[in-house]
Amino acid sequence: MNRWILEYLCCPVCKGDLSLTETEGTETEISRGTLTCTRCGKSYPVENGIADLLPEKER
What we know:
Blueprint: E1 18-25, E2 30-37, E3 43-47, E4 50-51
Antiparallel strand pairs: 1-2, 2-3, 3-4
């Protein structure tokens, strides 16, 4: 996932901003990590460069 896309993503539950905790990646790409909503606290995984923004029960 390209880093620049983070500014366009939001939490699908409350529309809050997402912050990234990265565990793998390069200067321009995110391979693995977690996106966490700064408003409601929901977390979404990033695996193999793909952010999974589905609700937890649908993953």
